[in-house]
Amino acid sequence: MSSPARHLVLVGMMGSGKSTAGRQLADSLDRRFVDVDDEVVAGAGRTIDEIFASEGEEGFRRRERDALLAAVADPSPAVIATGGGAVLDPENRSAMRAGAVTVWLRAGPEALAGRVRTARGRPMLGEDPYSDLRRLSLEREHAYEDAADAVVDVDHLDRRGVVEAVLRAIGAGERTE
Ligand code: S3P
After folding, report:
1. Does the beta carbon of 124 sit less than 6 angstroms from any atom of ligand 1?
2. Is pLDDT of 176 > 60?
């Protein structure tokens, strides 16, 4: 599965640790790091909450798709952390399949709820984040499966463990510096 010329894309639910692991993986692999949520915010000049409030989820998803497709189209290989819902769009999934090795950071709703410390930037979560995370996980399971070349179960892994497991999954060995 080792394809150094392709992007490494991380998918998974909110709280699965995509941004943290992505940053460390980019260091490890000596690549650029792209966080799709950050690209959306920078492009819009507004926060995710503001985009949802003014353009709805649909507007956010359009911006997210544009940012993801642009990131994948860039020829210089990067580590790309996506937002939890990016896999819902079939166009995003085909772009990942064509231009990236995609790893799903999979976690159960208990672990996710424990890790999601803030609702800021996460308007998909309401009064009861655990129920929302459980429902969204179920709704999205097939999309994650469809998008991913490999799965890493992160429930019982610390940060370093996640990075090592992703490197193993993509066949990039144990390099973690
Ligand atoms: C979302 C996840 C968020 C962000 C937005 C929508 C989702 O990103 O893109 O709030 O639908 O799961 P993280 O997964 O980085 O929290």
Report:
1. yes
2. no
